[in-house]
């Protein structure tokens, strides 16, 4: 299978917006403009935005970064977006992107990789568990703020 993984570039914007089928944002292009600004245009070495190509066509992406400020934890890698187009899922593309972002983050000195997944997103949970991710030492807590 002819799959390559590379850094995202400005020309990838439209296809990334189109591939983002899981977003519930009303303004997906606006959201992704902000992501491209921080992860593609600014050239910050702690931020990684990769795309996977099959035969020259973008078929997936993964976005992550090094963070060190959450709850006093040491620096760790975070993956906050990953998707592969449905036509080529189950071919190991997501795993290859995850492995590549993991290699890059490890070179930056981190030894832990984290993400957050909606409990109702069975596909994402299955993917992350399938590549070896497990519950970590922190638990997300939330409270819904109601209008008074």
Automatic annotation (TrEMBL):
Key word Nucleotidyltransferase present: no
InterPro entries: Acyl_CoA_acyltransferase, Bact_Acetyltransf, GNAT_dom
Source species, domain of life: Bacteria
Residue span(s) of domain N-acetyltransferase: 3-148
A Pfam family per the record: Acetyltransf_1
SUPFAM superfamilies hit by this protein: Acyl-CoA N-acyltransferases (Nat)
GO molecular function: acyltransferase activity, transferring groups other than amino-acyl groups
PROSITE patterns named among the record's database cross-references: GNAT
Keywords of this entry: Acyltransferase, Transferase
PANTHER family given in the database record: AMINOALKYLPHOSPHONATE N-ACETYLTRANSFERASE-RELATED, AMINOALKYLPHOSPHONATE N-ACETYLTRANSFERASE-RELATED-RELATED
Name of the molecule in the record: GNAT family N-acetyltransferase
Natural source organism: Geomesophilobacter sediminis
